[in-house]
């Protein structure tokens, strides 16, 4: 029974005991001359310390202890001695981690928060095209019941567990719409919910994002919240839509984007440059690799600006640094975070748990490593800096106003339209200025006539190799997924 329950733990411990046994055999004959001590002998001794400690705690500690908890604590202790981006992902955390990477789960398509005075669940945002949206659920609606159970006093974790589930299964919710005292009972069939990472400035009446921020001058605008499995495809679709509308210039907003999948960063950078190095990676136990851009499918050479701030990190910095070094875009805003390391997700226990381990550092096309090492000064060379004349530093209040003004749920088809805001986005205005200044000095007739590009044909897998298009890169390995996450 115990062996079945703690199978993986038993295998680890038995393996370690075997190592110790072999070590003991090597030391068995004390009479014979001993060869010089090898690193393997040191490894055996260290493993013996671990096994002895594990056994002593389990056998003699004042209270019963869970073997898995002991083992997980040991692994977490090892990870704590590494950099902040390396960590152990326990079985309990694996589903949430996969959702964060893929931005997909089974549900009805709403985000909710708990209203403390009423202790009820209030809808923050229904995602367009989802079961909740199609059923008429809107921002501000109150979820009164879930499967007949009241939501009064329910915790957020409990609510999420009830709302999420297997795609195809039904869930019943009682909804009180804004301005209505009656509760409407809805039976919704859960679907695979894809959380978009590419957002516009505001919604159209049909619930789709409007990416054209300056209709008079035909300037497109996209906010990228982070780099998930579908980000490159989402961005390609948005830019193609803008090109069909006659876009003349483009702004990519990477503010507060913490990064994500390394593969998506290279795919997105490849959309805007037609040749040369995108990024390279170097590691202690990994070969140096370089990702090169290809001309096929590159978007037209329209004027472009990228907005970054101090919280733009990792994959955001790969894209911004690449476009800056190739003089493809004007970088506007603030100095980026300075995270130049790549993590591999190495599956354990047949995928039940995993290690997120830093294995390499990435270098921008100029060859510089933009990582901010411990103790780095402001005067040191790290991160991505705005171009000369385009540094715009936000105050703390401006940063807070930005996050409130550009919340994805701020104007999801509310009956009163988008909320009014007095926030003056100086960074965005500077980006518009950069694009317009290039438009006034450059002839873009050819770019306007160009057909929308077809860059990404399939989900970009993470096991990228130099010089290949996304569709040619093969399936993602089961045991390793290369990330550029913070």
Structure description:
This protein has 486 residues and is of the alpha+beta class. 31% of the residues lie in helices and 22% in strands. Strands 1, 16, 17, 20, 21 and 22 form a 6-stranded antiparallel beta sheet that branches. The longest helix is centred in the first third of the chain and has 22 residues. The two termini are 40 Å apart. The N terminus and C terminus are likely disordered.
Give the topology, please:
Blueprint: H1 2-5, H2 7-26, H3 39-60, H4 67-80, E1 87-89, H5 91-102, E2 104-107, E3 110-115, E4 120-126, H6 131-134, E5 142-146, E6 149-150, H7 156-163, E7 170-176, E8 184-189, E9 191-194, E10 198-199, E11 202-203, E12 209-210, E13 212-214, E14 219-224, H8 231-244, E15 249-253, H9 262-272, E16 277-282, E17 289-292, E18 304-308, H10 315-325, E19 330-333, E20 341-348, E21 353-363, H11 396-405, H12 426-439, H13 445-449, E22 480-483
Helix pairs in contact: 2-3, 8-9, 9-10
Brief summary of the model shown:
By secondary structure, this protein is of the alpha+beta class. Helix content is 31%, strand content 22%.
